[in-house]
Amino acid sequence: MTESQIPEITEEYFFNVFNRLPVVLERAEGTRVWDENGKEYIDFLAGIAVTSLGHNHPSVVHAIKEQSEKIMHASNLFYYKPQAELIKKMSEVFGMDKIFLCNSGAEAVEGSVKLARRYAAKNGKDGPIITMENGFHGRTIATISMGMKKYQEGFDPMLAGFREIPLNDITALEEAFD
After folding, report:
1. Does the predicted TM-score (pTM) go above 0.85?
2. Residue 131 — pLDDT band, cuts 50, 70, 90?
3. Element at 49 (helix H, strand E)
C-alpha cells in the first residue's frame, strides 16, 4: 500500500463518524508527529488524550513491552500485581480512598454519570447533571444526551437528566441549582 492510497482505502472501508485532517501520519516521538513527507507537527491532540505522556518514551515502551510478554490485559474479575501497584500509587498521589480503572473514555464518562446519580439517590438529592454548552463528552447515547446538538440528530430519544449551561456563566450555574 502506498502512502497516497491510505486516505482512499480508509475512506472506502472505515465507517466514518467524523472528518479527518488531510495528513497521513507515519511516526511519532514525544509531543511530535511526522507525516509521510517528513513534515513535523506538534501533537496537541495526544491521540485525543490517549498518549498524554507523549509518543514512544523509552520507559513507557519498555514497560509495555515487558508487561505484554506476561499478560496483555486482565479483566477486573482477577487480581494482578500491576493493577494493585497502580491503584495503590494513585490513591496515595490523589488522596482518594478508592480508584476505578476502566477501558475507555466512554466507560469513564458513563461511570461518572452513574456515580453522580447513585450519590444523588443515596443522599436524597434531586436535579440534573450540569454540562457545559458545546462540551464534547463522547459519542455514546448518554454522552450525546449531555449536549452538542449536532451529534444528537437521528438518535432520539435522548437520555434525560442533563442540563446544559453556557461556559463561564456563573449566574446560569447558580440558577441551575435553584
Report:
1. no
2. very high
3. helix 46-49
